[in-house]
Automatic annotation (TrEMBL):
InterPro entries found in the cross-reference section: Band_7 (IPR001107), Band_7/SPFH_dom_sf (IPR036013), Prohibitin (IPR000163)
Signal peptide limits: none
UniProt keyword Transmembrane helix present: yes
Annotated localization: Membrane
Gene3D superfamilies: Band 7 domain (3.30.479.30)
Protein's UniProt name: Peptidase
Membrane-topology descriptor: Single-pass membrane protein
UniProt domain Band: residue ranges: 24-190
Keywords tagged on the record: Membrane, Transmembrane, Transmembrane helix
Record-level GO cellular component terms: membrane
Amino acid sequence: MERLPKIGLPILIIIVLLIVFISKASVNIGYGEAGVLFKTFGGGVVTDEPALGEGFHIIAPWNKVYVYNTKQQEVFEKKMQVLSSNGLEISLDVSVLYQPKMEKLGLLHQTKGEDYLNIVIVPEIRAVARSVVGRYTPEQLYSTKRDAIQNEIFEETKKKVDGQYVQLNAVLVRDVTLPIAIKEAIERKLKQEQESLEYEFRIEKAKKEAERQRIDAEGKAAANTILSASLTDKILKEKGIEATLELSKSPNAKVIVVGSGKDGMPLILGNQ
């Protein structure tokens, strides 16, 4: 085996050292990520400078970079057990949309660490959900107040995590599970209330129709009264004569006797 030239061995060593140096002194941060720099000999976590953004970065080989996902993320808390205002156990399915605050990433890493989800968000959402749900009855949770409860959980949790360098984007109450007996009782009550409202609606509709008919009848009666008062004997005779004259123009054979009818009205004889 041919021995390496004396000059070749140092070059090989330098190349190996250079490769190790580059691998230790560089970091590539992907899309939707950011890096927190830890200076081994320079004060630890860097909190007074912006986090390292996406792309390739050169660092001192004795330092380290902790990479965080800065995109919006979701944690799903399933079957979270809480108590209603009257002490009944309720099960909630809640989704939380969150992300770390980019400008506070160094402080988040320094004070909470990479497992900030289980240190900050999960405990806070559980505590707030128990507090908020405890103000409401099962019926309110099941029907009318669900959106209000969701908003309250979001607002109160947001206040708590904002100071811990986490951005809360939304809290979504996916499902509310009540004890079966309570759920059935609520559904029966809601059905009865709906039927009662429907019955009241029909009664009100009938009242309005009766009122409409009464007003219509009163109007017709008033019109008849006015008409009757205006129809004198003289006017009736005049209208009868006008009608008789119109009939006399008909081509059918007839005999008209003027003044022979009741009240002196004409008679029409010999209609064919």
